[in-house]
């Protein structure tokens, strides 16, 4: 007797042998028990998950010589011939190789005849989406008015390509990928019956690399059993699939957390030298990162989450070293290795550079956590703000962007305060903007000369206005008494105070002015002693470092 491959020998023969499609089995068994079997079914789902097996079992259930049943006998001639795929009344058609309208016409001509032996004439059309448009149209006519004794079972891996008109006349079942534990359980049963010895993780690895396909898993087990004479090892699995060991993948990930680019490159080169396919390796690495991401974000289902990688504990430990943002970034840039180029050498170079980058970059943190951090800093500053002496405020005064953060610094102690009141600079900008609007209506040419300038400070007597250094001509004109008078008039109208405008020229963005009269001052960075002192305040240093900023403007506030 010739050898029958495992996947055929262990093909499920009855509903209770079907693995991982409980939802389909339950509905079909109920339909059989209540005699409500539809005349057409569409079985949709990935390859090797039991669609054809289900179609045959349903056919046996309908045609078993012992009568319609949810437990076909698997002994009668009809059951056997259906199992072997050569029953006279159950016709299996491969849609991929019989795409033509002729085959469907044959069906149409023959559906009228009663079945030769059994109760039903059953057409199983596999890969039905491959039929041509004309063939579908011909099929549709039969589906619209099917004879009582005819049943159709369509199977497809691509249901979206089956016309809606056909789908609407079928009862559709979506077959799922079979879970890794379900597959490895099934493989364990087979190993037991067949006396196949395998290392513990072997079956799970097979299930994993077969990506939820039971038939493929069985075929692989078959291959491994025939070339491993003793025990099947994990290494055999890696070789037969041409995959990279999980140890190597986790080692590569560890090299990123350890900030060890040399190790990253060493592991990557080792993988390439072992003759592994680079695209397969990229896929594996992406799956590994996907596992890390799931473990990191799905905290509630942490113990039940189905990961592709076997070692959940290791995944947990590793995932804690990365923020989800970093994992998503890694996923994106690694997958780009495949989309950017098909050239293998270029892919290798891309990955080398990328791995060095990943092993040297800092962990990415989400914006929300940065905001939290700022909030925390704010609290810290608030907490240390003891209400003693005068406060000096460091603020960015910019009419164009008036809502800049405001930090106030007390000079005597190392204390910095965030101003919780309405920002004075916003009111400064507001005052200035109002004056500018006033000016625009009063004398447009003056307004035009002034519109590129910006206000630095306004106190009871004086408004300090900065003119860009490439606007010196403007400054000269603005300084004419008649122009100044108009501007002063506008300021008075807005503030109710007699304020005189004073112009300064911007050198490096901002310029110093000491305003002694009011105690308010605008100080240029680096020039004033006050500014230097403040720069050296520990809390200010921290703030500058934290915001990656610089002191733009220091202003004293009345205690
Ligand atoms: Zn039977």
Secondary structure elements and pairings:
Layout: H1 6-9, H2 22-33, E1 40-44, H3 51-63, H4 77-83, E2 90-94, H5 101-110, E3 121-126, H6 133-144, E4 150-156, H7 164-167, E5 171-174, H8 180-194, E6 197-198, H9 202-209, H10 214-227, E7 231-232, H11 234-241, H12 246-257, H13 261-273, H14 278-297, H15 312-319, H16 324-340, H17 344-358, H18 367-383, E8 391-395, E9 406-410, E10 415-418, H19 424-442, H20 444-450, E11 454-458, E12 462-467, H21 472-478, H22 481-495, E13 500-505, H23 529-536, H24 538-547, E14 554-557
Parallel strand pairs: 1-4, 1-5, 2-3, 3-4, 6-7, 12-13
Antiparallel strand pairs: 8-9, 8-14, 9-10, 11-12
Zinc ion binds next to helix 4.
Overview of the structural elements:
This protein has 559 residues and is an alpha/beta fold. It has four domains: 169 residues, P-loop containing nucleotide triphosphate hydrolases (Rossmann fold, 3-Layer(aba) Sandwich); 62 residues, Orthogonal Bundle (Helicase, Ruva Protein, domain 3), CATH 1.10.8.60; 113 residues, Zinc Finger, Delta Prime, domain 3; 178 residues, DnaA, N-terminal domain (GMP Synthetase, Chain A, domain 3, 2-Layer Sandwich). It has 24 helices and 14 strands. The strands form four sheets. The chain has a five-stranded parallel beta sheet with strand order 2-3-4-1-5, covered by helices on one side. Strands 10-9-8-14 form a four-stranded antiparallel beta sheet. Strand 11 and strand 12 form a beta hairpin. Helix 19 crosses helix 22. The chain binds zinc ion. Its EC number is 2.7.7.7. It catalyses: DNA(n) + a 2'-deoxyribonucleoside 5'-triphosphate = DNA(n+1) + diphosphate. Belongs to the DnaX/STICHEL family. GO terms for molecular function: ATP binding; DNA binding; DNA-directed DNA polymerase activity; metal ion binding. This is DNA polymerase III subunit gamma/tau.
């Amino acid at each position: 007797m010739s050898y029958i491959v495992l996947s055929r020998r262990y093909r499920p023969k009855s509903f209770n042998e079907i693995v991982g499609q409980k939802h389909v089995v339950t509905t079909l068994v109920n339909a059989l028990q209540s005699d409500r079997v539809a005349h057409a079914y569409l079985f949709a789902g990935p390859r090797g998950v039991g669609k054809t097996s289900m179609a045959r079992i349903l056919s046996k259930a309908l045609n078993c010589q012992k009568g319609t049943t949810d437990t076909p006998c698997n002994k009668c001639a009809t059951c056997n011939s259906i199992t072997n795929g050569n029953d006279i009344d159950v016709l299996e058609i491969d849609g991929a190789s019989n795409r033509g309208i002729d085959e469907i016409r044959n069906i149409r001509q023959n559906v009228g005849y009663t079945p030769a032996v059994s109760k039903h004439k059953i057409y199983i059309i596999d890969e039905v989406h491959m039929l041509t448009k004309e063939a579908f149209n011909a099929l549709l006519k039969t589906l619209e008015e099917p004879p009582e004794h005819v049943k159709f079972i369509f199977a497809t891996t691509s249901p979206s390509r089956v016309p809606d008109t056909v789908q609407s006349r079928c009862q559709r079942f979506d077959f799922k990928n079979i879970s890794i534990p379900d597959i490895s359980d099934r493989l364990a049963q087979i190993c037991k019956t067949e006396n196949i010895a395998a290392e513990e993780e072997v079956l799970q690895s097979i299930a994993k690399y077969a990506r939820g396909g039971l038939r493929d898993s069985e075929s692989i087990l078959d291959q491994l059993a025939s070339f491993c004479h003793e025990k099947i090892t994990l290494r055999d699995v890696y070789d037969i699939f041409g995959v990279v060991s999980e140890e190597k993948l986790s080692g590569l990930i560890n090299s990123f957390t350890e900030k060890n680019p040399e190790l990253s490159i060493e592991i990557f080169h080792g993988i390439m030298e072992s003759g592994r396919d680079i695209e397969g390796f990229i896929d594996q690495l992406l799956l590994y990162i996907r596992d890390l991401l799931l473990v990191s974000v799905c905290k509630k289902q942490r113990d039940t989450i189905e990961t592709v990688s076997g070692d959940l504990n290791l995944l947990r430990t590793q995932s804690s070293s990365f923020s989800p943002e970093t994992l998503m970034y890694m996923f994106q840039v690694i997958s780009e290795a495949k989309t950017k180029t098909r050239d293998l050498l270029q892919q290798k170079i891309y990955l080398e550079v990328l791995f060095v980058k990943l092993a040297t970059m800092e962990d990415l943190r989400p914006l929300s956590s940065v905001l939290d951090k700022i909030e925390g800093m704010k609290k810290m500053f608030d907490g240390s703000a003891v209400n003693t002496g005068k406060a000096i405020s460091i603020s960015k005064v910019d009419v164009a962007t008036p809502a800049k953060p405001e930090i106030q610094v007390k000079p005597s102690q190392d204390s910095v305060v965030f101003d919780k009141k309405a920002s004075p600079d916003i009111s400064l900008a507001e005052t200035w903007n109002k004056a500018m609007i006033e000016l625009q209506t009063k004398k447009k040419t003056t307004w035009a000369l002034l519109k590129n300038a910006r206000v630095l400070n306004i106190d009871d007597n004086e408004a300090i206005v900065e003119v860009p250094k490439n606007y010196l001509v403007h400054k000269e004109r603005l300084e004419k008494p008649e122009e100044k008078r108009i501007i002063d008039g506008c300021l008075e109208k807005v503030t109710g105070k007699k304020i005189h405008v004073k112009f300064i020229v911007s050198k490096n963005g901002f310029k110093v002015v000491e305003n002694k009269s009011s105690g308010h001052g605008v100080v240029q960075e680096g020039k004033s002693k006050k500014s230097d002192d403040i720069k050296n305040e520990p809390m200010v240093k921290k703030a500058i470092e934290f915001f990656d900023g610089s002191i733009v403007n220091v202003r004293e506030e009345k205690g």
